[in-house]
Design brief:
Elements (H helix, E strand, L loop, with lengths): L8 H5 L11 E3 L4 E7 L5 E8 L6 E6 L6 H14 L7 H10 L6 H9 L11 H10 L5 H15 L13 H5 L3 H6 L7 H13 L14 H9 L6 H10 L10 H10 L8 H8 L6 H9 L12
Antiparallel strand pairs: 1-2, 2-3, 3-4
Helix pairs in contact: 5-9, 5-11, 10-11
Length: 305
């Protein structure tokens, strides 16, 4: 697969914590990202991607029970491209950086990330998976998020070739009731939100994949997300970020503290102050903030989050 230049697989994979949640598997020694993928036919294949020769391509390997059809290979390739945000246009973001100049505090981190092939985010094959995982990040530690995601995949995910399970479908998650999510997944207060999300998506009353349409104004898309049970300002802006909409900052306790430390503040600034810091970036404010907040992650490739 052709990739944009510059592009760095490790920086994209480790752009945020999704790579540390099943069904993703990341091997930093081999620079290999893999997971089971459920195709439109219902068939689950195993996909693995590694850098190709010269750094301008990626090598995609698929494992399946029986011979994969040409259409299935094309679908798997398209899903991997989408998960790695390979077709995201960062040109306007680069031009915004150039227009703002180099004097802004976050500019060096943003410029360095872009020069080294960063700026793209790892996403899930479906908006449903991104939405569920976003709910699992609310008001808890990363260890708990990972534990809930692991139990969910193990309990309800369809098996893939060679072991491992894909992320559960909306239909699989819509069957169990709230008690299952409280007792088996240990999702706490999120249980009722997970049930509502899954049942809406499974019934068709909630068409999450339609939210990828770039013609939907970001304000309208945010309104739709905020209408989902459990999606407050942080969760909505986090899901918007994964949909390629970056005007919101998706502020939580972690990035408030991190940004205060980076800017030499004794205490976290108010959310209003943080929005003022990044307001000059306009529709790219959230991506600029995120690249500044996570710049040090890429100095330590073994760091999980």
């Amino acid at each position: 697969m052709q990739v944009p230049v510059p592009f760095d697989l490790a920086r994209t994979v480790r752009s945020h914590g999704w790579y540390d949640l099943p069904p993703w598997r990341w091997d930093p020694a081999r620079l290999m990202l893999g997971r089971p993928l459920r195709l439109a036919s219902g068939r689950v294949v195993r996909a693995e991607v590694t850098p190709g020769p010269g750094g301008s391509t990626l090598v995609l390997r698929l494992a399946a029970e029986g011979r994969a059809r040409t259409a299935e290979l094309a679908e798997a390739r398209a899903l991997v491209r989408r998960c790695l945000s390979l077709d995201a246009d960062l040109g306007p973001f680069r031009r915004r950086l150039a227009d703002l100049g180099q004097e802004r505090p976050e500019a060096p981190a943003v410029r360095r990330a872009l020069e080294r092939g960063g700026g793209r985010l790892l996403t899930s094959p479906t908006v449903f998976e991104d939405a569920v995982k976003t709910l699992l990040t609310t008001n808890c530690s990363w260890a708990l998020t990972r534990a809930m995601a692991s139990r969910l995949v193990e309990a309800l995910g369809p098996p893939g070739p060679g072991g491992g399970r894909d992320f559960p479908t909306p239909e699989a998650m819509a069957g169990p009731g709230e008690r299952f999510y409280r007792e088996r997944i240990r999702a706490g207060y999120r249980a009722r939100f997970l049930v509502a999300l899954a049942r809406g998506a499974a019934s068709g009353s909630l068409d999450l994949e339609a939210w990828r349409d770039p013609a939907i104004p970001e304000s309208e898309l945010e309104r739709r997300i905020r209408a989902l049970p459990g999606f407050g300002p942080y969760a909505a802006e986090h899901l918007l970020r994964l949909l390629g909409r970056h005007s919101g900052l998706a502020l939580d306790a972690w990035n408030r503290v991190k940004l205060a430390r980076l800017r030499g503040r004794r205490r976290p600034p108010t959310d209003r102050a943080l929005r003022r810091w990044y307001a000059p970036w306009g529709e790219w404010a959230g991506l600029a903030m995120w690249l500044e907040a996570t710049a040090d992650w890429h100095d330590d490739p073994g760091r999980p989050w």
